[in-house]
């Protein structure tokens, strides 16, 4: 439908008229459920109103975006006599984004930054003897990981390709095939819930090497990061820190801890071993734990209302409550002041090295809840209290991840990383008998609280691979059905090999100083995984569905 009016001609006599307007976003104002946009063309401005039923579609729209809006002219309650169209506004019921605002200086700068990082990567790895090899986009759906995006086959009706979540199997086959050193700027696809640092399709700097141990992989990756940060930020990176998964969870409550500020978790279960406080006693009797974090010299910054808000925050992570104590001038105050004994307080002062005006936040629960809730609270407090040095870049290798994780809904163990990750050699005999205490040769590189890459040394022994499949509940027949072509390759000799997948967008996001991955993507998807410009995903022609032997149900009930 063509536009019916320009943006400067609507008046009070046009109230109740259905209109189509086209123009540039001149100004945007958010008021909770309502969003107001002044739409501009060469003839003037019209205020457009988007209620919550349609506002999600413009969540990423900024100044100078081009919109086509469909709606009804209504009389404004707060008229603007300075605007020729100030007596009316258009209540929008449909919007189309014609073009994303690629002209913005920030976005253009970020896309140039992305290009530079990619070129530095290609040159660096090529100089080390790596070959850039493309792997298939249309591949086989395999278990584990996120949901696959499926592509129906027209030729083999009823069968589907899957878009790759990563080139994992293919790059391992390249190692079996003798390519020795491979890399790829690889597109990957995962059908999962989105957030600020995640998109349904993303790019991975994919690297695989033969005849290597962990140290060889670390050396290549650290060299790449150092050259990127030298050329992009003019920063000489210091030595990369290392920490086991268990220590990361124990001290930071996260497997991707932000090391730009201090504030470790402390286990204070022993302090309350003989406590009379029923809540703490019951948790310890149920084999739970009590941990805390100490916020130095900040007790005077937290009101009762502030602490109530923090309690609601930790409940999102499964914690039932957040206990707190304030230590000021050798006096105590707080939610559990009356139920914690004087002796227990004395031990807390010594164990936690408490000083005047320190604040203690405590959670008592199962270990997983305690660590995740306090870990999230630590990050929140670091941001809220401005404890984070935004100019620092702290790299950390997290190693020795659990081999498996238990999924209660399925009553089975699944691969924590992926089923081709090698277990630690000393844990091979426990794969079936004690999977909860098996650890792997998986590793992540963390940067400023973000998981920058994930990788591992892979299994190259067919017998160990079969044991891992059995441990995650795959019968030999099921393993052959899912991975037969891959397992067949093992028979021809598999070299020890390992590698990583580096999130390109996440790396560029950090380099660009933003916390939203959409700021470094030319055509990002919304939180509901839709492309508002091209209106994807969309319905397709019935004839296309017939060719694919597919019918679409209107309801999945």
Task: Give an account of the 3D structure.
By secondary structure, this protein is an alpha+beta fold. 27% of the residues lie in helices and 26% in strands. Helix 1 crosses helix 3, helix 1 (105-127) packs across helix 11 (504-512) and helix 9 packs antiparallel against helix 10 (476-490). The longest helix is centred in the N-terminal third of the chain and has 23 residues, at 105-127. It starts with 17 loop residues before the first strand and ends in a 10-residue tail after the last helix.
List descriptors.
single chain, 557 residues, alpha+beta, OB fold (Dihydrolipoamide Acetyltransferase, E2P), BirA Bifunctional Protein, domain 2, Gyrase A, domain 2, 3 domains, eight-stranded mixed β-sheet, five-stranded mixed barrel
User: Which structural class is indicated by helix and strand composition?
Assistant: alpha+beta
**Topology, number of strands:** 22
**How large is the count of helical segments?**
12
What is the molecular shape? globular
Please give the CATH class of the largest domain. Answer: Alpha Beta
Q: What's the domain count?
A: 3
